[in-house]
Structures are given as C-alpha cells and as structure tokens.
Amino acid sequence: MLNLISFQSSALGALGQLALLGALAFTLAGTWLAVVGGLRADSRVTEATRRAVWAVFALVSLGTLTLMAALLGDDFSVRYVAEHSMRASPTWMKVTSLWGALSGSILLWTWLLSAYAFVLSLTLRRDALRPWALGTMFVSLLFFVGVCATIASPFTPVSTLLADGRGPNPALQNHWMMAVHPVLLYLGFVGLSVPFAYAVAALVTGRLSDHWVVVTRRWTLVAWTFLTAAIVAGGWWSYETLGWGGYWAWDPVENASFIPWLLTTAFLHSIQIQEKRGLMRSWNVWLIVLAYSSTVLGTFLNRSGIVQSVHAFAGGPVGPVFLGFLAFLLIVGIGLAAWRAPFLRDEAEVPAPISREGAFLAGNWLFLVFAFMVLLGTLFPTFVEAAQGRRDASVGPAFYNAFAIPLGLGLLLLMGVGPLLPWRRANGQSLMRALVPLLASGLGAALVAFIFGVRAPAVLITVALAAYNLVGLGLLTARAARQSGGLGRTLQAQPRRYGAYTAHVGLVVLALGLAFSGAYRQDAQATLNLKAAPRTLLREQLALTGLRQEDLGFGTSAIASVSIDGRPFEARLNTYTQAPGALFPAPAVRYGLLGDTYLVVTSIDPKGQWASVRLIESPLVSWIWWGTLIICIGAGLTLVSPARPQMRAASAGLAPATD
C-alpha cells in the first residue's frame, strides 16, 4: 500500500491514504490498550484508550473530508473520483458520490463507526465495563479501518489522468433521496455496535446485572429509529425513482436491512422484561449479538456480489473479508454467551403464558421467525447456486407474503392486548375485561369497512386490528390521565411509555397504508397522441398536452406533459452521460390523503407526436410515510427524560399511573 502513496501523482489521495494508515495504527494501539486496561483495571491505561478513540475519529474524519474535497474539486487523480464522479455533476450529486460506490460507502461506514466510538468514549461511566466496551468498538474499527486502508482504499492514484470522470451510477442520479436513505441506513447499522459492545463487555467481565441493558436502551433506540426511517425512506426512493409504483419488492438488499430491524425491535421489547422482571437475560444477549451480526451480513450481501439486486455493488475482494468478519462476530458472541450461560439465569419464575411477559415473549418469537424466514428466502438462490451450480433460482414476493402477512397480523394482535395485561399472570376475568372493548371495536371497524366495499380478508383483519390497537392505547392513556390528574402530567411523568404508545399509533397507520395500497392498487397503460381527445384510464381523463426535451448538463430529460382530469402532470424519461442507451423514469406523483395518482412515461415518440404512459392509483400509500414520521416522533419522545422528581411526586400523589 505504501507504494501507492505519491504526493506527486495525487496530493489529496496521498493525504487521505496517510490519514487512514494513521487511523489504523491508532486502532491497533487502542485495541491493545483496551485489553491491558481491562485486565489490569488500570484507569490510566483506560484513559489512554479513550484518547486513542479521539485520534482514530480525527484521522478518519480527515480521510473522509479529503475524499469529499477531491470529489467537490474534481480531482481526477484520485481513482475513486475518476471512476464515480464527473465535472458536470451538480454539487449535491458530488457529495452523495461519497457513498455511491463500494470503497466510499465503506469509508462512510468507518467514519460513522468512529463517531459513535467517540461519543461513547465521552459518555461511558467509569466502571469495569468501560475498557472492554471501548475494546469491542476498537475490534470493529480495526476491521473497517483496515479494509479502508488496504483492499478498499478510495485513495489509490490513477495511472492515466482523465480530463473528466466516468460519473456516478446513473440510477443514483435520479432522485435526491440518494442523499438521505444510505446515510440513515448506515447510522442505524453502525449504531447497533454500541449495545453489542456493552453486551460483550458484560460477558467478558461477568457483570451480568441489568446495568448494561439499561445503559444501552437509548443507544439501541436511536439506532432503531434511524433504521426504521432508512427502510421506509428506501421504499419512498424506490416509489419515486424506479417507475413501478411500488415501494417494497422483497429485494435481497432490502431484506438485508429488514432483518436487523426485526431483531432490534425484538430486543427493544424484551429488555423491558429484563428491566421490570429480571427475565430474558440470556435471550437479550443472543438477540443483540444476532442483530449486530446481521448488519454485517447485510453489508456482506450488498458488497459480495452473491445476490442479484438493483441495490448491490459489484463483487470484489471485500466480500470474503466481510464474510470472515461475520463469522468472527458470531463465534465470539456465541462463545461468550455460551461461556456465561450459567450466570445468565433469570431471577423470577417463568411467566404465565397469559401475562404481559407472555405477550412480549410471544411477540419476540414472531419477530425471530419473521427474521429467519426473510433470511431463508434471501439466501435460498445462493444455496441453490452452491449446490447445483446455476443462478436462475429466485424467491418471489408470493413466498414472503405467505408468511409476512399472518406474522404481521399476529404482531398487531399482540401489540394491542399486551400492554393491557398485568405482569406475572392474568386470570380469565382480567383477560376478558381487557379484550372485550378491543374486540368490539375491531369487529365494528371491520363491519364499517365491509359496508364501504372492503372485501379483501387481510385488509378487513388489518382494519379490525387497527381499531383494536387504537382503542387499547386510548384506554390506557385515558386511565392514566384520569389517575394522575390530567394528560399533560401523565406525559411529563412518563414520556418513555407514551412515546412507545405514539410509536405504536404510527405503526398502525403504516400497517393500514401497507394493507390498502397492496390490495387495492390499480394499474393501466395507454398511448396518448398529442392534441388528441382525452382517453379514459382508471376512470380518469388523460390527455397529452405537450412534449419537450431538457438538457440536464449530465444527461437529458424527455418530458411528457399530461392532463389528468384537468390537473397537470409532468413525467420524465431521463438519460445520463454514462449510459446513453438506458432510460430512467422519473414519475409524476400527486399525493393525497386517501390515495396517490402516479403517472409514468414509458416511451416517447422521437418525433414528438405521442407518448406511452402508465397510470397507477394506490390508496393510502401516503399513510406509510406519515406513519413512519409518527413512529420516529414517538421514538424521540421515549428519549425525553421524565419530569423533575417534585413534579413526579405531585403527580404520584394524586394516583399512580398503572396499566
């Protein structure tokens, strides 16, 4: 690697490479210091470990800023810039090129990991877990910094200087969401390194009390929120960019982001049981090990080339290395958990099946089965290729929907009744008291939906469970407000609880959007002639009112102006310099509370006389985006500290808020 450092060939490239090599040196030193500090319980060595984290963060930041400067400055002496950027690209596209290809995306991951480690070093308590948590972060850093500084370095110089770069992937130039979705996804993936580090520290030291779970709840919740927003933002990107009118296709790389979300969601629910009842200690260790390992699995799938996906990077040398790191994480995590298994016993007795703990545990099993089935479907074509040597096997949406729909409905069912059940055990009377208003509201909502024409069984059940959940959350909130003297006091005293309730409301809204847009989506195509009479399509009147070309500087855009029931729409077909023969649709979408009108132009007459269009009507799609926003707001509320002790005492003096 040293022979690739040449200030004469590429000053910025040499500076960035030296920064990464320096970060690698400090990472090695920090790993050694963390182990020594942990074994000797030496606070001075641990303090040196913290300072090593700061050095790594500073050097990786320097490397990242250097690559950004090279991109913005069109320095085509840096290979990454020459291959993935070009002079004609707008500024925002040059910025997003940082994570638009393999080595740049790994550098972004590494920088975010060093940033999480830096923040962790500033907030860690001075206890026995401190050096080992930092050491675990250093192990992850050692892998990612090592990959960036060696086999996936973005700073290698080019042999022949180009006048202009090759430009970014055309598919990544088609929408501004490229600036949002990948960053959110990496923030979620990388954020899970912190609870994983705490879990490893607890296992190594044998300090297996509930402390590590309490400390990491906020870290996990932040990572989960980013991951939630990232998955839905990716769906919105697909909806706005690919021109197919959908948002989720069970693509292997989409699945790779969904699996950690499922496992992390299970972990967030089960740590509540450990905090409240001292149960599920071993379970939680296994969950966080699997959740963090699954982020590396997703990265491996994305960068190894073993799966076919519109989102995946081309295969390269990093695939086997990521597979090795995944194996290392699983071996270490599983080995430590097995070693400490005798000390991870639960304090309380096994909960009754009909209890709040029982509902949480059942939900966890559904999340685990869900994650396993998604993983199975994702890897099945790879298994077939390994066994039979052919790559034509595929798993379509029908396979995933066959289990995703019933499992999703089962989770909605448990989500509604779980918080209403008492801890430890619920007798038949309390169970019926909790269920009767929920079931009555659900049946009533399903009947109303049926009267208004809903016939799809899965949608009717979703409507019923939505009402069932909303009534349950309303009853809990009203009861607590009545006991504590007002809703305001209740929210101030217990923001964590009511933030969770808000997130559940958002999930209900999202579920309704998924159900209706999936079952009642309509799709039709037609060719429209310029200045011809309007055509009826899906009960809408469509007329082609104009065709024109627009020069983008880095490509061209063919624009079809269409009137739909008198409302103007402009749908585009874009072509880019790097792929002049490929067409990239940019649909025109009119969002509505009850449904979207989605217009795609599929082809345009070169002589400007006609255009073929596709019209899609999708009910309640926007509820997916609004539901996600509500989920994120609720997650943010759970991070708010409760009201001051005197305010809580005043509230408690009226009556405790129980549920």
TrEMBL record:
Matching Pfam families: CcmF_C, Cytochrom_C_asm
Subcellular location: Cell inner membrane
Domain (Cytochrome c assembly protein) ranges: 99-304
Membrane-spanning residues: 20-40, 52-72, 98-120, 132-152, 183-206, 218-239, 255-271, 283-301, 321-339, 359-380, 400-422, 434-452, 458-478, 498-520, 623-640
Bilayer topology term: Multi-pass membrane protein
GO cellular component: plasma membrane
Domain (Cytochrome c-type biogenesis protein CcmF C-terminal): residue spans on this chain: 323-640
A GO molecular-function annotation: heme transmembrane transporter activity
A Gene Ontology BP annotation from the UniProt entry: cytochrome complex assembly
Keywords, sorted A to Z: Cell inner membrane, Cell membrane, Cytochrome c-type biogenesis, Membrane, Transmembrane, Transmembrane helix
InterPro entries (UniProt xref): CcmF_C (IPR032523), Cyt_c_assembly (IPR002541), Cyt_c_biogenesis (IPR003567), Cyt_c_biogenesis_CcmF (IPR003568)
Family according to the record: Belongs to the CcmF/CycK/Ccl1/NrfE/CcsA family.
Task performed by this protein: Required for the biogenesis of c-type cytochromes. Possible subunit of a heme lyase.
Protein name stated in the entry: Cytochrome c-type biogenesis protein CcmF
